[in-house]
Write a structure and sequence with these properties.
Porin, 14-stranded antiparallel barrel, mainly beta, 8 helices
Length: 539
C-alpha cells in the first residue's frame, strides 16, 4: 500500500541509480578569479609576468622570475549579492564573508652564469567559493515536477517501486530514486491505460504556482608546490603540483500547489481535485585531488615578456552523500469528511526521516592552456594581456563499480551528456600598472570569461543529468571582473590593496524541460564586491 504522505531516502543504492551527474561535474569544475591584491588588481594577467605568489597557481614559471625570497598573506572581504528574476518579480539576497585568500613562501638560490638561479615556493589559495542563494516564489505552473518524474519512470513496475514487508525498493531494486520517492508519496500514479507507465499531477485545466529555495555552500582550496629557474635572464621555467581540498553542500526546497490536479482518491481512483507537495533535498560532496602544472616565460627583449602555461585536469576522489523528502497532501471534494480518511483534507502527518545515502566517485576537471604577453616599460609601467582556454566539455566522471575503492568505471552516459551540454571557455585578462613613485603603484584590470554552456542547453533542448532526487540546476553564462588597486613598498615590505567587482549571469532550472514542456526557470545574476588586502616581505 502506497504511503499517504512520505519522506523517503535510500541508503547504499546501486551506483547505477545514484551516480555522479553532469550537473555535479560541471559545478565542481568551476573556478573563480582569486589571488594576491596585486594579482587581482591587474585582472590576473600574470602569465607572462611572474614574480607574485599567485603565479605559483597560474604559471609556475613565474617562480623563476624571483631574485630573492618572499613571504606574504592576503585577506579577502567578499560581499556577494544575488538577484533571482522571474515573471513574478525579483528576489534579492546577500552574504558577506572574510577569509584568507592566499599565503605562501618563495625561496631563491643563486647558482652561476648559465642556470643563474633556482627558486621554489609553497602557496595556499582559494580557487573557488560555491556560496550562492537562488529563490523564486509564486511562479505560475505550466507543468509539474511530478509529470517530469512520471516521464522518467516508465518500465518500472509498481511492485518494484512500492514498499512491502521485507522489501525496500531503494536497497533491493535498481529503480530511479525519484520514481520511488514520487510513487510512494503520491506525486505520480500508475497510468490505468498503460501498465508500468505513470502520470503526474498536472493535466489540462490544472493551474497553480511553485516555489523554490536553493542554498549552496563550500569551497575549493589549492596548495601549490613549485620549482623553477632562471636561464641567462632570458628563459624562465617552472613546474608545479597542485593539491586540492573540496567541500560542497546544496540544500534545495521545491513546492507546488495546484487546483484541478489529477489525484488519486481514497474512494474513487484517479479523479480531479486540489494537490500540493513539497520536496527537500540535501547534498554533500567532499574530496581531494591533484594536478600538474608547467610553464615558461621568455624575455626576447628587455621590454618584452612572453609566457605560456598548461594545467592538467585535476583528478579528484570524491565522497557523495544525499537525502531527500517529500510531503504530499490533496483535497478530494467527493471524498467523505471523516477522521479515519486523512486524504479528504490538507492535514498531513508529521514527516518520516530515513537514513543518509553515500557513494564514491572520481572526477577529471577540464585542462587549462594559457598564453600571455607583457610590456615592461622601464621602471614606470606594465601592460599585460592574457588568453586562456578551458575545455569544459572534456570533464569526465567515473563511478564505483565494485566493492573496493579502486574499482571504478567510466560513466559513458554522463560523459556523453557533458560533451553535448557544454563547450570550451575563452578567458581574456588585461592588467595595467603605473609606478607613480618608487614606493607607490597604481593598478587596474579587466577579466572576461565566455559562457561554458552551449546555447541549445540554455534553451532547454539538451537535458542536463542531475543526481539523486534533486532535478534543479544552474547554468552559467558570461562572467566579467573590473578591478583596481594600489601598492606601497617600504624597504622590504609591501602593502597592496585591491577592489574587485564581479558580475556573472546564469540561468536556473527547477527541473529539465522535456517533451516540449517548460520547467520553472529564472534569470540569475551574481554581483560581488571584494576588498583584497595583501602584506608581505621580500628578502
Amino acid at each position: 500500500m502506497k504511503r499517504i504522505q512520505a519522506i523517503a531516502l535510500a541508503a547504499c543504492l546501486p551506483v547505477a541509480a545514484f551516480a555522479q551527474s553532469t550537473d555535479d561535474a560541471y559545478t565542481l569544475s568551476q573556478s573563480e578569479f582569486r589571488g594576491t591584491a596585486r594579482f587581482m588588481s591587474m585582472g590576473g594577467a600574470f602569465t607572462a609576468l611572474g614574480g607574485d605568489l599567485s603565479t605559483l597557481g597560474q604559471n609556475p614559471a613565474g617562480v623563476g622570475i624571483y631574485r630573492g625570497s618572499e613571504i606574504g598573506a592576503t585577506l579577502d572581504i567578499n560581499m556577494r549579492s544575488y538577484k533571482t528574476m522571474t515573471n513574478q518579480g525579483t528576489n534579492k539576497d546577500s552574504q558577506t564573508k572574510a577569509f584568507c585568500n592566499n599565503f605562501g613562501y618563495v625561496g631563491t638560490a643563486w647558482l652561476g652564469s648559465g642556470l643563474r638561479s633556482l627558486s621554489w615556493g609553497v602557496t595556499y589559495g582559494r580557487v573557488n567559493s560555491f556560496d550562492r542563494i537562488t529563490r523564486g516564489y509564486n511562479l505560475p505552473t505550466q507543468n509539474s515536477l511530478s509529470n517530469y518524474i512520471a516521464s522518467c519512470s516508465g518500465g518500472q513496475t509498481p511492485a518494484d517501486l512500492e514498499f512491502a514487508d521485507g522489501y525496500n525498493p531503494y536497497l533491493d531494486s535498481d529503480c530511479n530514486w525519484s520514481s520511488i520517492l514520487a510513487y510512494n508519496s503520491f506525486m505520480i500514479n500508475e497510468n490505468p491505460s498503460e501498465p508500468d507507465n505513470y502520470i503526474g499531477l498536472f493535466q489540462q485545466g490544472t493551474y497553480g504556482d511553485a516555489d523554490y529555495d536553493v542554498r549552496e555552500h563550500g569551497y575549493v582550496d589549492e596548495y601549490n608546490f613549485d620549482i623553477g629557474g632562471n636561464v641567462s635572464d632570458v628563459v624562465y621555467w617552472g613546474v608545479g603540483i597542485g593539491v586540492t581540498d573540496l567541500s560542497y553542500s546544496r540544500e534545495t526546497y521545491y513546492s507546488e500547489s495546484m487546483e484541478n490536479a489529477r489525484i488519486m482518491s481514497a474512494t474513487n481512483g484517479l479523479t480531479t481535485g486540489d494537490a500540493g507537495f513539497s520536496m527537500a533535498n540535501r547534498k554533500k560532496i567532499t574530496g581531494t585531488g591533484w594536478n600538474f602544472k608547467l610553464g615558461v616565460i621568455v624575455r626576447p627583449a628587455p621590454m618584452v615578456r612572453l609566457g605560456m602555461a598548461f594545467h592538467t585536469p585535476t583528478w579528484y576522489n570524491l565522497s557523495h552523500g544525499y537525502d531527500a523528502s517529500v510531503r504530499y497532501s490533496y483535497y478530494d471534494p467527493n471524498a467523505p469528511e471523516s477522521d479515519d480518511n486523512p486524504l479528504s483534507n490538507y492535514n498531513a502527518k508529521d514527516p518520516e526521516y530515513t537514513e543518509w545515502a553515500s557513494f564514491d566517485s572520481r572526477l577529471h576537471t577540464p585542462w587549462r592552456l594559457m598564453f600571455g604577453g607583457a610590456l615592461v616599460i622601464g621602471n614606470e609601467a606594465i601592460v599585460s594581456l592574457d588568453y586562456e582556454r578551458q575545455a569544459y566539455n572534456t570533464s569526465k566522471v567515473k563511478y564505483q563499480s565494485g566493492y573496493y575503492y579502486d574499482d571504478f568505471t567510466d560513466d559513458t552516459d554522463v560523459n556523453d551528456n557533458i560533451k553535448n551540454c557544454f563547450k570550451g571557455v575563452n578567458i581574456v585578462r588585461l592588467g595595467l600598472e603605473y609606478r607613480a613613485t618608487r614606493q607607490l603603484s597604481l593598478r587596474a584590470g579587466l577579466n572576461y570569461q565566455t559562457s561554458s554552456t552551449k546555447q541549445e542547453t540554455l534553451d532547454g533542448k539538451n537535458e542536463v543529468f542531475t543526481s539523486g532526487t534533486d532535478a534543479s540546476f544552474t547554468l552559467n553564462k558570461e562572467t566579467y571582473y573590473i578591478t583596481a588597486g594600489i601598492g606601497y613598498k617600504y624597504k622590504g615590505w609591501y602593502f597592496d590593496g585591491a577592489y574587485v567587482y564581479k558580475n556573472r549571469k546564469s540561468e536556473f532550472f527547477a527541473y529539465p524541460d522535456y517533451m516540449g514542456y517548460s520547467a520553472p526557470r529564472a534569470d540569475f545574476t551574481e554581483s560581488n564586491s571584494s576588498i583584497v588586502l595583501s602584506v608581505g616581505y621580500k628578502f
